Amino acid sequence: FATLARKYVDALATGAVPDVDDAFASAAKIENERVKDECMDMFRFRINDVQLPLPSTSLDKHFTEARCSALEYMRTNVVQDVASVIEKHALMEMDLFSQQFQRQNEEEKEKHCTNVLLGLASFSNLQAGLQNKCYEVIGGHRKFKRDVDLAREEYEQVLRYYEQREVKYL
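The line above is the sequence of Guanylate-binding protein/Atlastin C-terminal domain-containing protein; the predicted structure tokens follow.
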């Protein structure tokens, strides 16, 4: 309202004919920018509340919920956004933020998986066997294959538990 009044007074002071539509459009633009900023703050707050790493499906679900909630706020508070310009800008910002956050999640998942693998006894045994050249004997390939399969099975079991645990708590 203050912007609307200021535009109107400025027009009168300069001797111009006040244009209510122009003044209202300027006020609406300022208000819509404020609403978009609040919407983005809501979105970022909900996303930054997530503890990484997360399984991709859980993260996608969280993004969708945060996006819907923020857009609902924007749609109820935006002023005269006939062509949904403000909403399109907000969606582009959300997509950019989501992509950056997903990259960060992928990096965290890679670190997590590496730590899981390095912490497995079966993987340590496999590494020790390679260093000690235990597999470089006749029939060693069978033992090597068995040790690799054991390490893979143990690794996948730990990650399956991780995936199920994360989905339940979200």
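Note on the example: The mean pLDDT is 86. Helices lie at 2-13, 20-48, 56-77, 85-119, 121-131, 140-169.
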